[in-house]
Amino acid sequence: MATSETSENKAKQTCNELEIQEDFTTDIHPLYSRIDRVSETHNTLTLNSSRISSQLAHLQSEHSSLTESRKTLQNKLDEDTKKITSLQQNLNTMTKLKNDLSSQNQNLQQEKRKLQSQISNLEDNCGRCLPNWVLMNNTCYYFAVSDAVLRKSWAAGRQECKKNGADLLVINTKEEQEFIVDTLKTLRYNLRFHYTNGFWMGLKDDHTEGTWKWLNGTNMTAGYWMPGEPNDDNAAEDCAAVYPAAHPLRAWNDAPCSYPLKWICEKEVDITPHNPQ
Ligand code: MAN
Ligand code: CA
């Protein structure tokens, strides 16, 4: 029993010793462990710091290279903007030049047309008649054939002739009658007969019905009426018109003086052409 007690005590003692030992270790071990952890953390931080430093260096280098690129691009942009402005100015100048040339061209075209008409007038009648007038036996004639010329009453047509120092047509001979109708046809006024396609002449019977008088006061002797004319339709036709009729000697009709028709003017040549000897 005593042995067993002794060994029990020994065991207790060992146990206490162990406890003491254990107490010792529990005091020292955490310190080491913390030192380890701190060191480990320090390592990690050092590693991170060097990584961050290298990243920072990389980013700084990228940043400066991008700044450089930006500068270059900005310069390029400035240059291009300058070029665009200068090109825009050139374009404006060119556009203005083009418009000027085009308007000059129009003026020249108009001048050319005028000169051409003067040339053809000189070739046709040595300048003795106005442009677009036709010369025949020392007389200039105007045929209002153009579509741009509106039909007018006998009196208004006569006014147009007077504006050019002329008067309505007076036909004195058979040849003149043929010339007038042939010219009307040549001027492509060869329309089918309709009283609206007539041309006023200086011939009326408004003073005495049935007595036709020319503007120069002479009585009409030879008349070149269409068959059935003059008929004084509705007792209202006192003015005579000539038509581009198939038969040149059957080409007149009497119509109301107020009706709108075309007209023919006539004017003696008043300029003696200069004949160099
Ligand atoms: C017909 C005929 C002509 C007359 C015209 C205009 O064409 O009767 O004689 O002049 O109409 O009224
Ligand atoms: Ca008639």
Description:
The protein is α+β, with helices and mostly antiparallel strands. It folds into 2 domains: 47-126; 132-268, Mannose-Binding Protein A, Chain A, CATH 3.10.100.10. It is built from 3 helices and 8 strands. The chain has helices spanning 2-125, 154-163, 174-186, and strands at residues 134-136, 139-143, 167-168, 199-208, 211-214, 239-242, 252-255, 262-268. Strand 1 and strand 2 (139-143) form a beta hairpin. The chain is rod-shaped, with a radius of gyration of 59 Å. The structure holds alpha-D-mannopyranose (MAN) and calcium ion. The site of alpha-D-mannopyranose has 8 residues, from strand 7. Calcium ion binds at residues 229-231, 233, 237, 253-255.
Provide the low-confidence segments as ranges. 273-277
How much is the average pLDDT? Answer: 87
- What is the correct CATH architecture of the largest domain? Roll
- The tally of helices reads 3
Q: In CATH's first tier, which class of the largest domain applies?
A: Alpha Beta
CATH homologous superfamily label of the largest domain = Mannose-Binding Protein A, subunit A
Task: Give the proportion of residues in helices.
Answer: 40-55%
Distance between the termini: 185 Å
Number of domains: 2
Radius of gyration: 59 Å
Number of strands: 8
What general form does the structure show? rod-shaped
